Amino acid sequence: MRCALTVLCLTLLTAMALAADAESVNLARGARATASSHLPGAEPAKAVDGRVADDSRWVSDRGAAPPAWLHIDLESRSRLGGIHLHSGWKEGGAIGDFHVEYRDGGDWKAVPGAMVRGNQAQSVAVPFDDTAAIETDAVRLVVDHAAGDVARVRELLVWSYSPDGIPVLPPGDADRTISGIHLNQSGFNRTKPKRFTAPLLADGTPFTVRRRGDESTLFEGRLVGHIGDFTPFEPEGSDEYVVHCGDERSVPFRIGRFWLERVTYRGSVDFMADARHHVGSYTKPCRGSFGWRDDHQFSFELNGLVAQYLANPSAYERMKRTIPPAPPGDGVRWGALEACPVEAPDIVRLIHWGADTIVTQRLDHMLLKEQLAFFLHAWPALKRWLPEQNRDVVLAYVRDVWVKPTITGQYPYDTIRENHDLLVIKTEIGTTKGENPPGHSILPNLLMHEVAVRERLPDADRYLRVALDQAAWVVAHVDWTDPLTTKGQRMSEHVVLAGLGMILRHHASRAPDGLAAKLRGWADVAIARSDNLWDFRMLSATQWTPTGSQATHWNEPGNVMGFPSCALAALPAVDDPGRRIRLEQLVWSHVDDCFGRNPCGRHFSYDAPREIEGVEHGWYSFYKGGIGQLENSRFVFDGSPKNAHYPFHPEVGNVGWTEGWVAFNSAWNASLAALATHDTQLTCERRGRGILVRLRAPLDFDERTRETGVVTVVRDGVPEPLEVVEEDVDSAWLSAVIDDAAGVTRVTYGHGFWQTATDVQPVP
After folding, report:
1. How many Cα atoms are found within 13 Å in the side-chain-facing hemisphere of 480?
2. Which CATH number does the domain 187-256 belong to among 1.10.8.60, 2.60.40.10, 2.120.10.30, 2.60.40.2470?
3. CATH code given to domain 2-160
4. pLDDT value at position 127?
5. Which of 40, 101, 509, 750 has its CA at a distance of 20 to 30 angstroms from the CA of residue 619?
């Protein structure tokens, strides 16, 4: 009876969805349907008869040669908006892998982006890219893989195009494979917030945390606002845990010293290696790309890569080298810099690549040339690996173009042809595309000030003056309550907050009036908009995520992935203890959002289940092709919940746009750097004429091994490396003893603006 009622509800609600949107019409209803094969009584016409039922399905013949297909002849040529596919039998049998084709003259062509892999939901929405404008008189569903190699289609709805998008899938048919407890599927860091959301369970419902396969209760609590909090639960070891709440059970997860860093550091580097332009996982030219595929000018790759390396160098230096040497440069695409030695860490090879492509291609857009300040600032750390010629060439190019007001060549989505002089105040704010974030030049000018001082250039102070003046403009003119200036910047917001935060950290005495209050104001807005069951920062008081003029807008993984960097930049200005705790809680809730604590219950990456330890459910689909050609790249963040999914509407399915972008990953890299800086501590304890040096940094990735790192000891003004070793196989601290500390005045970890340091009292 329950199945029959479900089918009836699905049928009625599908009809209601159709009636509610008169502009979007199901063109397949009653159309002529043919198929590659069918079983007796399961003819293709039953897939377009308007009934979503087990007794009215097209079922392919098991013995037929794959792939199975269902062909729909439309009454006339029409522009298409997408499909709804209802597949399977009883409670299972959903079609796992399929794609959609359309007839173009005498040829069949794949609908861009309409490919689904690993589907387990019986009802799936597949909106078409509205920029592709698919017009046709015939559609074909191609079943690449189905349960038992039999395609079972209860109903195929083909929707005509509407600016409002295709109708929403009926409620009540959410993906049954997703647990009702939404949390970080991979795991949690010790000493950090650990929270989950149970959207359908009542407040006050008790929950417990148990070892996987063990009924013993290790922690217990109750839901408040649909949220369960088990932050105090701090187990050691490598066990998996499960949350039990009501009738729901979470997926298993782990809790480790630096679990997030363990499962993402390698992937963050692998993506940047794969996504490079002309090399990596796709070597053909891509339009609008320079150093990375689909980078445009506003992906800020060096901002993130340099910060990652300088904040936690030992983690990246001890990684296995995997990036092969690039082919010799032709002097047009790359090659202005002498080649990076093969022994350099992978992240250094990527930093070298980014600087080389900008200089070789003579890219003079302000958002690209300002990235070179990160390379030059990092030179004291990079010179161990790179030829001195690299520094000389980059510095000469920067001094040549830094104040150049105009640009040569074409830059996608560019709205500013003049005012590219980086010593001129920037008063323009870009759109929700993220192409011109306010205050983007603050940190590059701060870094160039440090470079100019180090290189003894005559104009050092002017960079600092402009950075401070630009910050003052942001304080006076940028309204954090306007979504366009914060979350509306989509994946570029971290650039703004990092610059403001670095002024307070390194030039507090010269900071413009009101800067600390401005950062507190940003935190206040973020906290206010995150008061919901997901601890998720909304776009506004009434809207969850950015939307746009087209139904496919927006895909905002970078907004969420870059949030930790923003929040940690603002944190030093927040003096109220309760608000500091809440802001750090939001740092981790947004990390968790990327890993499944969201209305869809899915990780943002389609490939996460096979690439990220502990993840069970990846994003619905990935984008095949596109400007970035990222489908074969590792660690791609493909999609995130759209406005229609909130506060809890998983039945909406795979709506909106899904496509990876290097700009999303570079925002994630910035967050990894900010987390490393925030979590790094360095102490020196006097022991007679020696000292005990202790370092706490994200370096404990393996609870079975005593891992190592390297700090720098300054003795008589000369830096020297010192290896520190994990104090136990699963310890937060690494340490070493200097028996004779005569002349030692300072110990540091990391480099430049991202360095952690402590002074040492002289030996008596």
Report:
1. 21
2. 2.60.40.10
3. 2.60.120.260
4. 86
5. 101
